[in-house]
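Two proteins follow. First one:
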Amino acid sequence: MHTIFASTGFVLACVGLAISVAFWIPRLCNRARLKEMLGSRYPVVYVVYIANGPLLLILGLILALKFH
């Protein structure tokens, strides 16, 4: 059972890291175009980024380290 949680944590950490890196590479995430398209709703992009990038990374690390 512990290996399932540790494996899930490792996968979540990798996905969170990939999303975090992809968000800051200008060619992958054109923030100027997103700002143009979303207008006043642009801050929602950061909420989605935080929920899917750093928080997944942190959750994955916690699971991987706790159940390793």
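Second one, unrelated to the first:
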Amino acid sequence: MMTKNLCGLHKVGMILVWIGAFNWGLVGAFNFNLVDAILGSVPTVERIVYVLVGLSALAMLACRSCKACNR
């Protein structure tokens, strides 16, 4: 998917999805959770990041029906 054709919401979503994928790769390969390492002292913010990553994945699934992205 080309990022130049995406609306602003989907660009942010793609960045968050990449962050989530990178974090899960680190967890799987090295048992190291980067989000926890950075935000572990603030569990509420850490949880918000995880929710935003999940919502971003759903937004990316809906990207094909976004009128702003498919001009």
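SUMMARY FIELD: DSSP finds three helices and no strands in the chain. The two ends are 14 Å apart (CA to CA).
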